[in-house]
Amino acid sequence: MGTLETIAAERLAPWLSLFRKKNPDVGLKIKIGNSNELLAQLQHGSIDVAFTFDRGQQDERFLTRRICSEPLVLIAGGDSQARPPASLAALSTVTFVATETGCVYRHLFDTAFAEAQIAAPSIVTEADSIATIIRLVASGTGYGLVPRLAVGPAAARGDVVELPWPGKPPAASLVMMWRRRRVQPPALTLLLQSASQELSPLRPADARLRHAG
């Protein structure tokens, strides 16, 4: 299986421990990569399933199942004395740290501002991972818009603070993807069933899973 580093650390680790206890005969290998690497590995068969954030694009090579919705949060450095933006328009005038174009996290960032119908803000620094973005934000480089699941440890230490989003809070769909095959391997079937049932408690807004197959 393949996944993004943030998802592996904050969402998959507890579930995989439970899965191993229930299925001790199933061997697991986890590969960490960016979103493009995961899709390539999935296509080539080096992984059987990928856990990532939805780009909103249909890919007929794969089946996709939505697991849950993950909030995106606006963060600033803990020592920056940053004030919550007064409006969505004000957000477009401040500087941000984001991942580079082509990364799924950059897609989530760009989509959040597009859906808010405001101009995208200036990207002062492009980083290679969410962890790096959080460290740069903590140092005062700029604001960040990242999945809340990645912010917990830094927020607990006071390195960053979460600021209210001046509008409808953006969110991202956590999904799992696997190749279309006439017959799925039994171990993969077990993994998919377990993830659907146990990976994350579903809130009402997340209850309508998009089942494939």
Automatic annotation (TrEMBL):
InterPro entries attached here? LysR_subst-bd (IPR005119)
Q: For this UniProt entry, which segments traverse the membrane?
A: none
Q: Where is the LysR substrate-binding domain?
A: 2-198
- Which keywords does the record carry? DNA-binding, Transcription, Transcription regulation
Say yes or no: keyword Ribonucleoprotein present.
no
- Biological process, per Gene Ontology: regulation of DNA-templated transcription
According to the UniProt entry, its GO molecular function terms are: transcription cis-regulatory region binding
Which PANTHER family has this protein been placed in?
Answer: HTH-TYPE TRANSCRIPTIONAL REGULATOR, HTH-TYPE TRANSCRIPTIONAL REGULATOR CYSL
Name of the protein this chain belongs to: DNA-binding transcriptional LysR family regulator
Where does this protein come from, organism-wise? Rhizobium leguminosarum
